[in-house]
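#dry-run=false #mode=assembly
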Amino acid sequence: MEINFRKAKFKALAATIDQCPASDVPEIVMSGRSNVGKSSLINALVDNKKLARVSQTPGKTRAVVFFEIDEKLLIADLPGYGYAKVSKEMKSSFSSLADSYFTSGRKFDLVLHLMDIRREPTDEDVAMLEYMNANNIRYFVVFTKCDKFSAAQLRRRIEELKDIYNFDENADIFAVSSMKKQGLDELREAIAKLLI
Ligand SMILES: Nc1nc2c(ncn2[C@@H]2O[C@H](COP(=O)(O)OP(=O)(O)OP(=O)(O)O)[C@@H](O)[C@H]2O)c(=O)[nH]1
Ligand SMILES: [Mg+2]
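#status=ok
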């Protein structure tokens, strides 16, 4: 089976978890704080600037938006999350739509967890990574907005981040720029290899 990320279309918009569409294809979830570049990355992966709405204002994506890729994959574009104060009591704090996506029991196959390469880890990111590790959720870490760095700076920053986050040796880590279309082939290939 092949996937070329070319035939992408809007599938559904869910303002509540009940409105998420039934599906029998693998599902990828875009996760990460507001403004990190989730919608932009979807557009870049499928090379269609207009598919997912890109916001200038953080927090603009208020629903879960589903896109179908090559009739073989669904991508769920979550609203930017805010689990600022969660750690042990994460479950009780899971209240936003993005949070309830994860606790709804909906089946999904891979999370793309996006973090801005220029920023330091936030409590939300650390909590999300812990949550995925604790629940055996398969995820790729995707550092976004890498066009802000030179190649040398980027290499140094990624080493620094590996230390900061203390990632597993075999963690799947990607560095992308949706704007400059960097790192997209690697990510597409890894997705296809895992899911198709
Ligand atoms: N320099 C740079 N800016 C980017 C890149 N990707 C996204 N942006 C900018 O970051 C801002 C937010 O992008 P979105 O894709 O809307 O972010 P989002 O994560 O979907 O945001 P929410 O929907 O609010 O959760 C926009 O102004 C984009 O133009 C990138 O690769 N490089
Ligand atoms: Mg968005």
